[in-house]
Design goal:
It comes from Flavobacterium degerlachei. This is TonB protein C-terminal. Keywords: Signal. The protein is α+β, with helices and mostly antiparallel strands. The protein has one domain (about 20-135). It contains 2 helices and 6 strands, in the order H-E-E-E-E-H-E-E. The protein has helices at about 1-20, 90-100, and strands at about 25-30, 40-50, 65-75, 75-85, 110-115, 130-135. The strands form 2 sheets. A 3-stranded antiparallel β-sheet has the order 1-6-5. It has a 3-stranded antiparallel β-sheet with strand order 2-3-4, with no helix packed on it. The longest helix has 17 residues, at about 1-20. The protein is globular and about 45 Å long. The termini are far apart.
């Protein structure tokens, strides 16, 4: 009887840990993306440098990627900002991007740039995009 009770409790505890209450969605900001007629728009302009450690390589540090993001308001250019995406300054980047997002997308979990480099593979500049993970 103790074994059955233990097994039921074990299964119940695993099911509690398996549930994820966070409903994460992703906002993809591409190069040359459409600019909204009303409100703020973010446009991924370019990659200035990408020193992230490629997959398949052992590196001393993870590296960083430096990108330019443009802000438009009602189709009018407002400004450009250079963001350095790395583990060190994620809160700074989140704070900057949050001010240009709608209220329902401001609970940002992470900001990443894709594709991630792979050893021996050159990434075409047009393939890069910014991905913002936010909790609904």
């Amino acid at each position: 009887m103790k074994n059955i009770l233990f097994a039921v409790m074990l299964i119940f505890s695993f099911s509690l840990f398996a549930q994820n209450n966070n409903d994460v969605s992703y906002l993809k900001i591409k190069q040359n993306s459409c600019i909204k007629k009303k409100g703020n728009s973010l446009v991924f302009k370019e990659v200035l440098s990408d020193s992230r450690c490629p997959e398949g390589v052992n590196c001393i540090w993870a590296g960083e990627i430096k990108v330019v993001v443009a802000v438009y308001l009602d189709k009018n250019f407002i400004k450009e900002e250079t963001l350095i995406i790395s583990g060190k300054n994620s809160q700074e980047n989140i704070a900057w991007i949050t001010q240009y997002l709608p209220a329902d997308k401001r609970n940002i979990e992470s900001i990443n740039v894709f594709p991630y480099p792979k050893e021996g593979v050159k990434i075409k500049s047009k393939k890069y995009f910014l991905q913002i993970a936010y909790i609904k």
